[in-house]
Structures are given as structure tokens and as C-alpha cells.
Automatic annotation (TrEMBL):
<dbReference type="InterPro" id="IPR050208">
    <property type="entry name" value="MHC_class-I_related"/>
</dbReference>
<dbReference type="Pfam" id="PF00129">
    <property type="entry name" value="MHC_I"/>
</dbReference>
<dbReference type="InterPro" id="IPR011162">
    <property type="entry name" value="MHC_I/II-like_Ag-recog"/>
</dbReference>
<dbReference type="InterPro" id="IPR001039">
    <property type="entry name" value="MHC_I_a_a1/a2"/>
</dbReference>
<dbReference type="Pfam" id="PF07654">
    <property type="entry name" value="C1-set"/>
</dbReference>
<protein>
    <recommendedName>
        <fullName>Ig-like domain-containing protein</fullName>
    </recommendedName>
</protein>
<dbReference type="InterPro" id="IPR003597">
    <property type="entry name" value="Ig_C1-set"/>
</dbReference>
<dbReference type="InterPro" id="IPR036179">
    <property type="entry name" value="Ig-like_dom_sf"/>
</dbReference>
<dbReference type="InterPro" id="IPR037055">
    <property type="entry name" value="MHC_I-like_Ag-recog_sf"/>
</dbReference>
<dbReference type="InterPro" id="IPR003006">
    <property type="entry name" value="Ig/MHC_CS"/>
</dbReference>
<feature type="domain" description="Ig-like">
    <location>
        <begin position="238"/>
        <end position="327"/>
    </location>
</feature>
<dbReference type="InterPro" id="IPR011161">
    <property type="entry name" value="MHC_I-like_Ag-recog"/>
</dbReference>
<keyword id="KW-0393">Immunoglobulin domain</keyword>
<dbReference type="InterPro" id="IPR007110">
    <property type="entry name" value="Ig-like_dom"/>
</dbReference>
<keyword id="KW-0325">Glycoprotein</keyword>
<dbReference type="InterPro" id="IPR013783">
    <property type="entry name" value="Ig-like_fold"/>
</dbReference>
<comment type="similarity">
    <text>Belongs to the MHC class I family.</text>
</comment>
Amino acid sequence: MSFIGNYLVSQIDCRDVVTQKILDVLFIHKKQNRFLTLFVYFTLCFTEKHSLTYIYTAFSHPVKLPGIHEFTAMGLLDNRMIDYYDSTVQKKIPKQDWMKEKLQQEYWDKGTQSRQSKQQWFKVNIDILINRMRQTSNDTHVLQWMHGCEGEEDEHGNLQFKRGVDMYNYDGDDFLAFNDEHQVWVATLDAAVPTKRKWDEVTALKDYTKGYLEKECMDWMKTFLKYSTEQLRNASRPDVYIFAKKAKESSNVVLTCLATGFYPKDITLNIRRDGRVLTKDDGVMSSGVRPNHDDTFQRADYVEILRSDSATYTCEVIHPASNKQIHFDADSFLCIYLF
């Protein structure tokens, strides 16, 4: 994950064309009589890599736009939001059911105190930057901080630290970043140089930052992955539906086999005619595996057939992770039409 251009953009795993847009936040900042648009667009692909990231965004004064708060903080596990805080709610809240179920109230209380403290820190430091850069306080300015870690599974399935990220962005420009390998702060703008020099002299800060990225962040990531996987496995079996709808040709119907609510995403879905698996050559089309809103997946395959076809059509779904194999005879469903 890296800052590209004006803001944060996640990496895409090109092995999988199925991606999920899970976050789309629009910030508008008036600068030099023009509007600068900052956006976050995350895509999620399932690989052996995992990430835990926290993003903080603070404006110099309230922005009168719906859904945009003076201060916002969010936690992201594999680019999926797991917790949230803003200056209006003033509470750190879970955004996943497993976060709410697995973590005690003490965790959320301490998290709320931490977010409130950071909200004040951001307010003070935006004012410092405005003065340092000789800007007018009448304009809207924005300071952002992203920090977190990325891990990768080794050949034994153990999650190992790959890299950490701790960077600041001001008014849409990269400002300051921590070089984890060399334990130094890197200033991107001239205005960041005084901060770099000051922070480089604080050994305890550099040691803490490195320790958090490489150890504490990774420990939390492993814990969160364990909790999320436990919940999803309990609700991973697919529900299967088969139905038909009218085709453009009045003599035909479109037979559809839908599997939904399964996790993980690996699944086999076949439409059989008299026992033979139909393929693309037979006109079978597929939606591919797509994400549901609850972190499970769905897939629908369909084929157009003659209404008068007397063959036996079967929907076959095999989901290895849940040890579930389902066969549905389609004959009795051909009278159901969905418009």
C-alpha cells in the first residue's frame, strides 16, 4: 500500500480479477481557488498477504459536507474496515460483528480515550503547520496519518512481518514518512524538515515506532485474523437456489444456479444435463465469485435451454472448506419465473 499522487491507493493482486470496492471516501479541499479531490479506493483480493492499517484524517475546521467530519479514524484489516471513530460520535466503535463479540468493553474504552487524545494532537499540529507554511487559517487544510503493517505467510503458514508503514500527508501531498529499516524520518516537503530533525533526535520515539510496526501491529493482526476466520468458518456453508426466468425467445428459459453465503471463496459449481457437465461451449455463463456485504461470497451460473427440453438438469455445488456437496434437480423449478 502506498501514497500515489494525492492519496492512499492499495495494491491489487493481479491473479484475481474479482475485486471488491470496500471504501470510497471523498474529501474536498479548497486550495488556491480550486478544489483538490482526495480519495481512497481500496480493492480486496485474497492472497497469502495480510495487512492491518489505521488511517487518521483531520481538517483545520469543520467541513460542512454530509458524512465528512472534522476528525476521523478507522482501522482496516486486509483493507476492510474493522473499527471507526469520528469527532461527532466521539467513540471508537466496531465495524465487524466479530470485533464486537470478541473484544471486551475495556478495549473500546481505551480505544476511545486514545482516539480523543489523537484528535487533540491533530488539532494542535495542523495549527503548527499552518503557521510554519504561512498559510491562512480561513482556508481548509487537512492532515492525515497512516500507520500499520503488512505480513506474509511463509511455507509453513506462519505470518511473518514483511514491512511497516508510518507516514503523514498534508493538503494532499506526502509530508513525512518513517524508514523502518534505517530508523530515520524522511521529509518529502521542506516544511517537514524541522519535524524530521526533531523526531530523529528522539531515540525512544524511533524505537517505539519500529517496535510497534514489527511486533505489536503484527500481534494484533494475527489476533484479528484469528477472530475473523473463526466467525466466518462458522457461517461458511453455501445456500443454494435454482430457478428459471423467461428468455428473450419465448420458446426458451434461462436456468440459473445460485450459491451464496459461503467462505472461503473456493467453490465448484456445475450445471449438468442428464449427468453431463455443461461448459461454455454449451452456452453456460457465470458471474464468477463475487463478495457479499457480510464478508461471504456468492456465485451464479446460468444457461439458456429450450422450454420443451425433457432432459434432467442438475445444479451441483461443491464447497471443500465446509465439506458440503449439494445436488439439486432442476425439473421441478422450471415453472418458476422471475421478472
